[in-house]
Amino acid sequence: MNLLVVGISHRTAGVPLLERVTVPGGQLAAVLADLVAQPYVDEAVMLSTCNRVEIYASVTAFHGALADIGGILAARAGTTVGELAPQLYVHYEVDAIRHAFRVAAGLDSMVVGEAQILGQLRDAYGTAAEQGTAGRVLHELLQQALRVGKRVHAETEIDRAGQSVVSAALAYGQGATGPVDGRPALVIGAGAMGALSLATLRRAGASPLYVTNRSAERAERLAELHGAIAVPYATLPTALEQADVVVSATASPEPVLDAALVGAAVSAAAHPLLILDLALPRDVAHGVGDLPGVTLVDIELLSESLSTTADAEQRAAEDIVAGEVEAFLTWLRGADVAPTVAALRARADEVVEAELGRLAQRCPELTDGHRAEVAHSVHRIVQRLLHQPTVRVRQLAAEPGGEAYAQALRELFDLQIPTKDIDPAAAGEVHP
């Protein structure tokens, strides 16, 4: 299992660079197709969120695949691989498994323990499965990662405060402008982050709540779910005048709020405005945060302010991840040797059937009953001879370096192991 993760996040790069690398949903299929078209990349899943872009890949060679993936990311950033490399992180094999599990558990998030990453990871895998770029290897990795993430959230209180990027940004903003309780709030964008924003604002007591989106139908559906009021996107200037708090979380490649629009709204309303920009690329243009009466909190500011101090719940989550990594490695080694054991038994059956055929030709006088008795005895002898070696090779395969034993069996008996891909229709299956 040649697993490779190449990524860039708020921990390794500034928001301006992340904005250039991030992949809008409409471009994801093309990027995935480009990835698996590379010489050393067999499978690919891309996770693109407000604070990270990661590529999970099954590869045929480490250095070749790293160059392939680095080249694609560099092209998106409008730079060279050499210039981008210092901002990238790379995980291979066991480290790649550990990283995937930590990401799913929320341990690598900007807000440690946030649960939104589980849905984002699930969506990333689903898109790759639909596009045919995720096969057996990444299916196993990501299904296990999702299970581990769910287990961490179920067995620890790492998300006990309901932490999310939205709640963290809102807390930071309220520190500067005061509580939002009883103040009107507007959410721009009707995706998953928009829904989370409405829920967070409602819990904080903001009222009334407004939501707008280029797709009026999506805004109306979200408004109904969260007790908000849907307003037409064309009336955004008026909606801004009515709001004390604005959360913008769209997938727009260009800013949706510029200095002229926000400045006019603040002047007309004659009251301060708190803006939370949770989009990547950013929804708020440069200069808006410098306007009088405007307090702007964006991903860049948020990443600088959040603490990553470990606590008991984080340590408990890390322990779960460590145990799950070892369990997954043991399962993988056993899964890798299973086709070899099956091929060995199939080879033994072929030999037995061939010899029984020869016996039937040499001794035509044998009755059907005699032939059945001989066949039964020969099969039992062969199975008993194979039992101990096959049990032992499974045990050895579960240990570090165990692949060598399966390889030895394949070489000794000239076994050909067919490769197979996962059926995307089975994407919902989770192995134990």
From TrEMBL:
Enzyme class at the top of the EC tree: oxidoreductase
Family according to the record: Belongs to the glutamyl-tRNA reductase family.
Domain Quinate/shikimate 5-dehydrogenase/glutamyl-tRNA reductase: 180-303
Entry's free-text remark on domains: Possesses an unusual extended V-shaped dimeric structure with each monomer consisting of three distinct domains arranged along a curved 'spinal' alpha-helix. The N-terminal catalytic domain specifically recognizes the glutamate moiety of the substrate. The second domain is the NADPH-binding domain, and the third C-terminal domain is responsible for dimerization.
Catalytic activity: (S)-4-amino-5-oxopentanoate + tRNA(Glu) + NADP(+) = L-glutamyl-tRNA(Glu) + NADPH + H(+)
Function field: Catalyzes the NADPH-dependent reduction of glutamyl-tRNA(Glu) to glutamate 1-semialdehyde (GSA).
Active site residues of this protein: C50 (nucleophile)
List of residues binding substrate: T49, C50, N51, R52, S109, E114, A115, Q116, Q120
Highest taxon above the source species: Bacteria
Protein name: Glutamyl-tRNA reductase
Domain Tetrapyrrole biosynthesis glutamyl-tRNA reductase dimerisation positions: 316-415
GO molecular function, one term: glutamyl-tRNA reductase activity
Site label Important for activity, positions: H99
InterPro entries assigned to the protein according to its UniProt record, in alphabetical order: 4pyrrol_synth_GluRdtase, 4pyrrol_synth_GluRdtase_dimer, 4pyrrol_synth_GluRdtase_N, GluRdtase_CS, GluRdtase_dimer_dom_sf, GluRdtase_N_sf, NAD(P)-bd_dom_sf, Shikm_DH/Glu-tRNA_Rdtase
Enzyme Commission number: 1.2.1.70
Domain Glutamyl-tRNA reductase N-terminal: residue ranges: 6-156
Organism of origin: Dactylosporangium aurantiacum
Quaternary context: Homodimer.
Keyword entries, A-Z: NADP, Oxidoreductase, Porphyrin biosynthesis
Other facts: During catalysis, the active site Cys acts as a nucleophile attacking the alpha-carbonyl group of tRNA-bound glutamate with the formation of a thioester intermediate between enzyme and glutamate, and the concomitant release of tRNA(Glu). The thioester intermediate is finally reduced by direct hydride transfer from NADPH, to form the product GSA.
Gene Ontology BP, a term: protoporphyrinogen IX biosynthetic process from glutamate
Binding site for NADP(+): G189, A190, G191, A192, M193, G194
Pathway named in the protein's UniProt entry: Porphyrin-containing compound metabolism; protoporphyrin-IX biosynthesis; 5-aminolevulinate from L-glutamyl-tRNA(Glu): step 1/2
